[in-house]
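Lab meeting notes turned into a lecture example. A postdoc, R.K., suggested we walk through two folding results consecutively so the class can see how the record format repeats. The first protein's sequence and structure tokens come next.
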Amino acid sequence: MKITRRAAFALLATPALAQTRFTAQRPVRIIVPYTPGGVSDITARLIADPLAASWGQPVAVENRAGADGVIGTEALARAAPDGHALALVSVAHPVNAAFYRLPFDTMADFTFLTMATRTPLVICAARNFGASTPAELVALARARGAGAAISFAGTGGVVRLAPLMFANQTGIELSYVPYRGSTQAHPDLISGRVDIMFDTVPAALPHIQAGTLKALATTGAARSPQLPDVPTVAEALLPGFEATTWGMVIGPANMAEELAATQSRDIAAALRNPVVLDRHRVLGAEVISTSPAETRAFVQAELTKWGAAARLAGIEPQAAR
């Protein structure tokens, strides 16, 4: 007998999880404040079925993209804190505070439930670029001097701030070249018109595997399973250096502590589903879960880290588009 994916999810829901958690039988919304197809969107859609089975009510994913995630996140901030409105946000949530004057408070207006995914960046360059390690990159930048700074392709957010943090910690100068997305940046990177890029592993991996780009290092705390022979920046040059993209489930502020704890546990269980784990493994994303307290502490640390990187680079918050 063939078991459908939905049926497989339902079979994995335990009787304890199958009990309804809410006071009203109406759908739960997971807002994804980005366009469809990204890791956050995929994660939300993968956990929707097991959560629906656990909670005994529909779970719908709603894409509300715009202003780098600000529009959808603001919608969550205005929702009732009854567990029926959640969002799956990315590292853009704390990073946006460095770039924009936001219509909400990054910390105070939300309840932080659990981390969901974590994905390292990879420093990549054309195969004939004159450096193949972080140390060689620093040496090359110093040899060129300020008048011919290493250029880096950035698409905003952490992909822009991570190279600036690297430059600050190594004492070199990098020149920012903005692109709308990785797809637009890759041809110039491959041709050498721009020197390097701190890109997500899933986006850069096909070009690295094809040999048109080379990986100098990854930026996670540990090596990427997709690039096991590539050292991290932390082990190769800068102990403690870490810059990752990630996904996280949050709710509006003032959710009851018991409700937040319950939803955090249920979402963690959904993330451990084999279908969810296998899909993220293909994407190059690590699936993780944390308690509400751990999640809040992590966001606060990210807010501090990326805010400092932006200030050192002279970035001033602008009105959200």
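The second example is placed directly after the first for contrast:
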Amino acid sequence: MTPMQRATYLAHWRTNAMQRRVSEARAVLERASALGRVSVSMSWGKDSVVVGHLALQCLPPPVAMLHIASSYRLPGFERVQAYFAARANLHIIEPRRTLQETIEWLREVGLPHERTAAQQRAVVKAIKKDVGTAWCIDHGFGVQVMGIRADESKARRAFLRAKGAIYDAHGIKFACPLAWWTAKDVWAYIVAHDLPYHPLYDCETHGHTRETLRNTGWLSTDGAERGRIVWLREHYPEQYAVLARQFEQVRAYT
């Protein structure tokens, strides 16, 4: 992160609007804590860094955190994981498929950028299968805290407007303390508290900035037409080489 970026985020941190965001997020977490045992979902992306840090301040210890691991995550998450593992009761659900099994499965269902919207929804549902929710229910957690934000997509904006920051689904409650935060808010919080973050966010090239980059696995080709593949080739050449070898069609995007 450049000195100018850091100064800009620190200036944003000092605004009244940013402080209101933090107060509102804390209030959501306090309400969630009153509703039952809470587990915090952690992806090691920028949003979950902030959610995790807020949870450590607002929830009674030990704070339970849940990470659902992927067989094709980008390297560099380790420092973030270690930070929270040292401060919370971290539970990790290991990948259900090996990397090779995932590749074979993707040959059947297609890469993300090749699917229709309906196909993508079906695949996402098959991947997740409410694994986190099932874990919460099995371990007696009635509330799952998520780091989702309305400005990530039109669908999430519509969903959060309809449901609110705390809602019922699949037999438990979900709490979204960052529901109305922007990516700028997230980075202002990270900088102000000097929190660790995944190094992928410093790879600001090919039209991608730390505010638009997402912590998705290297087999995920969402955004191929917007430079995602050429970005991967430049910053994660080892992972790109495997992707291009297994799915030659992605070379067309580089």
